[in-house]
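Write out the 3D structure for:
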Amino acid sequence: QVQLVESGGGLVQAGGSLRLSCAASGRTASNYAMGWFRQAPGKEREFAAAMSRTGARTYYADSVKGRFTISRDNAKNTAYLQMNSLKPEDTAVYYCAASFRTTDTVVTGRGAYDYWGQGTQVTVSS
């Protein structure tokens, strides 16, 4: 069992930055690929960014590529999402997720993730 707790959300003006954190407990985080998803009101939860177990591989949705950066510190069992140049359309609840992996691959499918955090709200004002 893995427990994930997100933090770092808030209200920011367009063009601003936020860094989300996802603290993992319960099992060794280095056995899990990590991902960030987001869900805007009235919309499906969508993929934003993913990172492999070691951090060697990353993948981003086109909508965030070049603005968001996913990272992880396995010694601290924590994953991060640095969000720059934020836009009002980035407003959503952001969720981190963990997927147990035996290889160093990224995971982009929502259904492939085993554990989810409770989410943190990000609101970008225009």
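DSSP finds no helices and eleven strands in the chain.
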